[in-house]
Amino acid sequence: MNEAFKPGFFFRNPHLQTFLGRSKIRVRKEEHFRRASKAMVLDCGEGVRLLGYHTRQETGDAKGLIVLIHGWEGSADSTYILATAGFFFRRGFDVFRLNLRDHGESHHLNEGLFHGALIRETFQALQNIAALPTYGRLYLIGFSLGGNFALRLALKHSREKEIPALTRVFAISPALDPHKATVAIDNGWGVYRRYFLNKWKRSLRKKQALFPELYDFKPLMKARSCMEMTESIMIYYRDFSDFRDYFRQYTLVGPAFRGLSVPTTIMVSRDDPVIPTIDFHELHAQENLHLSVQPYGGHCGFIALPDFSCWYERRIDNAITQDFS
Description:
Blueprint: H1 14-20, H2 31-35, E1 37-43, E2 49-55, E3 65-69, H3 79-89, E4 94-98, H4 119-130, E5 138-143, H5 145-160, E6 166-172, H6 178-187, H7 190-210, H8 226-233, H9 243-248, E7 264-269, H10 278-281, E8 289-294, E9 303-304, E10 309-310, H11 311-321
Parallel strand pairs: 3-4, 3-5, 5-6, 6-7, 7-8
Antiparallel strand pairs: 1-2, 2-4, 9-10
């Protein structure tokens, strides 16, 4: 687990690393894997349904189950999800790729809007996934906002002990403080702000088309920053007094991981253009929390060239291998 990420000098740029992580070259081998995947709609209680894709070993004999959660405005079919899924499928694991609410092709499944504090339905989804065929070991991997979800799922499991098969949790470039991450996106390189804004607006247009009697997002379409969008959309989030209260619901800083009982590893780079890393250094030490801060890697990148191998996939594989030795 101590291998450091050391890309070649010309491949250290954080923006290049971020884009490499999403390069379609990474999924050139995954068509067979995608064809082998079965779509599943999970009943998550209170009328909530989430869409995912389950891929099983053809022999029916898997080492365990890998569950993957994408980042904000990503999906179960995002490049980094498919690449990581294929990597572990070839190593003998079954894989479940979960869509968060209103991500991928799932906008029609729920009237309510997605937001980052929806941990209860995601936990229920994980319980349902764990109850599929009997798996002795379940490994959870989350990316960016999905990494934040994975960390909160680990904490909720630590309190409630309701997913007995959960063996290890991994978070790649997770957003610990969503308020700071939103500000970083808005104040950083404009490409990221436009990327997330455009994808968010496209998602909201799709939601409005499906539920025109509930939503009118036309005023939000004028927003020119992610923070402006967040403040404007609060009229649809009645459970929060304002955007600060909303962000607090899924902020993980300081002593947040007290009581963590499942081995959990966070992997992040100091040059991440989306996630401020100062909060990682201020986390209180905890026996089951392992932090790997690399000098390079961008946001969910960590790609080595020329072979497009992925550093965090090898790190996770090495950690999992310990459970079989």
